[in-house]
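Q: Hi! First time asking for a complex rather than a single chain. Here are the components, and I think there are two in total. Is that enough to go on?
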Amino acid sequence: MATVSAETAVRARGISRPWRLLAAALLAGALLVGLGVGPVGIGVTGIVESALSHLPFLHVHSPLGSVQEAVLWQIRAPRVVLAAIVGGMLAIAGSSYQGVFHNPLADPYLLGVAAGSGLGATLAIAYGHVGTSGALLPVAAFVGGLTAVAAAYVLGRSAGSVRAAGALVLAGLTVTLFFTAVQTFVQQQHTNTLRDVYSWLLGGFSTATWKDVAVAAPYIGVSSLVILLHRRVLDVLSVGDEEASSLGVNVARLRLLIVLAATAGTAAAVAVSGLIAFVGIIVPHTIRLLVSTSYRAVVPLSLVVGAAFLVLTDVLARTVVSPGELPIGVVTAFFGAPFFAVVLRTSRSMR
Amino acid sequence: MLRRSLILVAALAAVLAPAAAAKSHAASFPVTIHAANGDVVVTSRPTRIVSLSPTGTEDLFAVRAGSQVVAVDNDSDYPKSAPHTSLSGFTPNVEAIAGYKPDLVVVSNDIGGVVASLQKLGIAVLLEPAADNLAQAYDEIRQLGGATGHTPQARKVVAGMERALTKLLRSVPKAQRRQTVYHELDPTYYSATSATFIGRLYKLFGFKNIADAADATHTGYPQLSAEYIVSSSPDIVVLADSVCCGQSAASVAARPGWGSIAAVKHHRVIAVNDSIASRWGPRIVDFARAIAAVARKR
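A: Yes, that's all I need. Here is the structure of the assembled complex.
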């Protein structure tokens, strides 16, 4: 029986053409809306002509003034691009954690990545005096995130067999609670830098620059590529460790590889955008409900839909109280939590 | 022992008696102070004051009650001579505060019911919350002066502040008063509107605050978007995140897209000390002086 279910899972179809087109259209639409909406009104034709004017040999004259040009290409465009790559990364990382740990509620925060990155950043601000715009901050967050996941992994291994994914999940929770406690302690010792840390932890793209994109993109690119290449392996892993082993898969090594890739990408995303929850759960589950439960569909679609989702969420974050801003973590939680409840109900009734 | 203290008292009385006779206020205890936590009776001249409010500490030292202060909280960094301790105004510990055997405690926030807890121990507590306007800030200085036996000094401090601020306001020519200003609280562009204490100061100068149009939720401290700041192109940018977050005129000029802002082009981006800009004590005059200087610049 087990072999039969494993084979059907492995043979499950990838993405059908309409879904592929729809996802691409969604992302393209989201990027356009992201570029077109903001406190400074710039029409679609203005954006297109301005974009063309930046291309060589076309000799198109940009209709925008210097302020509009600066707003569009130095402030709005990096913001949209950063939201897209972070959203894609969080969603694809969520889907891979869910596959690797057989846990539908797993997301990039489960293994303590967020808490670890948060602590790393807090320590850097409190003791390293780097400020939220310091170049050291992403590195500190990155080191903290990887430390947390390593701690969770070691703790999970020592607490139970490697195959018992539940032990890893609990270890991740333990690490999260411990790191959060340390972070609260450090913040209390440095109340003068509290404001700085809080604004960073709340997350968001309000200060996004091309530099942030350049910092995060390599990690996110490599991580996504590794996960994409292993989407079939995730299908095999999802049917159970024993079945996967019997199919000739080195479960422990592949699990470690995928977890490392997802964590490195998430840490890079957290480093440039703070803590943004729910993306890693909402996006993969929506795809499972609408398209397919096969990771061959869930992984690539998560990347594309996650990008579109966070770009649109960020549009809300900067337009709801425009020209003020809402922290994007608040927006994702506000829409994510009720959505999550609906997903939970639907998946239960479908069972 | 008793004899020694008697001699000391006698000696002190000999020194103080003429002064006391000249200034009748010295014998004005007990006094009733109308603070934010109601009428507080201070039975005798306090000699063991604990301040858990950085602004309260600055006020106390300004009215020359500094020698009566035995402990200040970990955020009270001015004046340098204040008796700094690890006491916290954010997470006040009643036992730790009581350990200093205070006869007067000054707080700016009643966190965790600290006011009631201290009063239960028979300690007089003055709640002096963040001021909304200058009048309130002056009131707090007068209250702290009255509670510590320094009423005339407090009056003098307030009069001095009023005089200095009036002079600074007048020093800016009428033609340069209609400038737009952006007050930056942190590098994620949180700002302060004209409804806040600091915002009211800008309003006194006649400035137009770009945060006013962005405060949809009326918190007084909206987060602005970079686009909005750049397109508003404020004439003056005030950085109240220079100490916490290392911001400066140079770092602002280096932000992508910010080069077109009028304040950046005309070198009217100034960094102010975060603490001075977030407190409501006598040093607000220093802040106003920095603002007036940049506003006068042509």
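A: The first strand of chain B starts at residue 31 and ends at 35. Let me know if you'd like any chain examined more closely.
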